[in-house]
Amino acid sequence: MVRARPMSFARTCRRRLILPLLAAVLGQNAPAAGQPGGRAEATSPAVDRAILNGYRRYNATCSHCHGADGLGSTFAPSLIEQPLPFEQFAEVVNNGRTRGNSVMRGFAGDPNVAPYIADIYAYLRARAAGTIGRGRPARSR
Ligand code: HEC
Fold first, then answer.
1. Over the chain (141 residues), what is each successive 10-residue block's mean pLDDT?
2. Which of 1, 95, 104, 116 to mutate for ligand 1's pocket (most ligand atoms within 8 Å of CB)?
3. What's the total number of domains in the chain?
4. Of 8, 33, 39, 136, which one's alpha carbon is 20 to 30 angstroms from that of 17?
5. What's 81's domain CATH number?
6. At what angle do helices 45-57 and 117-129 cross, to 10 degrees?
7. In a domain, 128, yes or no
C-alpha cells in the first residue's frame, strides 16, 4: 500500500516552489506543466464555488506537504489516489494523525481550514474522479 509517490528532490522543489509561484504570477489559469486540462467541467455553480474555494484552501495550507494538485509528496500521501470517506477525512484534518515518524498536526480551530473542510474535500474528490485536471479549476459560469 504505497500511497506517496516517490519524487526526486528537484521535482519536489519544482512542485513546491516554482509551480505555485508561476501560478500566482501568471494569473493562475495555466494548468500545471505537461498536463492536459486543468479546467473544471461544468457541474453546478454551487459545486464549482466549493471546488474553487477548496482548491484555494488546499494550496494555501495542504499542498506544501501533500503535493500540488493532491498528488502526494515524498513525506505526505496523495489525497486523491485512495480518497477517504468524508468522516474519516474530516477526522484527520481536524485532529491530525501520527504514525511513527509520519506526523500531521490537526487543523481544528484554524480559521483558514476548519470551516472549509467540506470544500477541500469536494476539490480533492473532483480531482480523484477526474472531473477536474491539474491546476486551477475554472470559475463557475
Ligand atoms: C506538515 C505537513 C502536512 C500538512 C501541512 C498537511 N498534512 Fe495531511 N498528512 C501529513 C502526513 C505526514 C500524513 C500521514 C500521517 C500518517 O501517516 O498517519 C497526512 C495525512 C493526511 C490524511 C490521511 C490520508 C490517508 O489517506 O489516510 C488526510 C486526509 C490529510 N492528511 C489531509 C490534509 C489536509 C486537507 C491538509 C490541509 C488542510 C493537510 N493534510 C495538511 C502531512 C501534512
1. 52 46 40 43 75 97 97 96 97 97 96 98 97 85 50
2. 104
3. 1
4. 39
5. 1.10.760.10
6. 100
7. yes
CA of 62, closest atom in ligand 1: 37
Predicted pLDDT of residue 54: 98
Query: Does residue 121 belong to any structural domain of this protein?
Result: yes
Residue 5: per-residue pLDDT? 54
Taking the CA of residue 64 as reference, the ligand 1 atom at the shortest distance is: 5
Q: Is the pTM of this model over 0.85?
A: no
Residue 121 sits in which domain range? Answer: 44-141
Distances (CA, A) of 116 to 11, 20, 34, 82: 29, 21, 30, 21
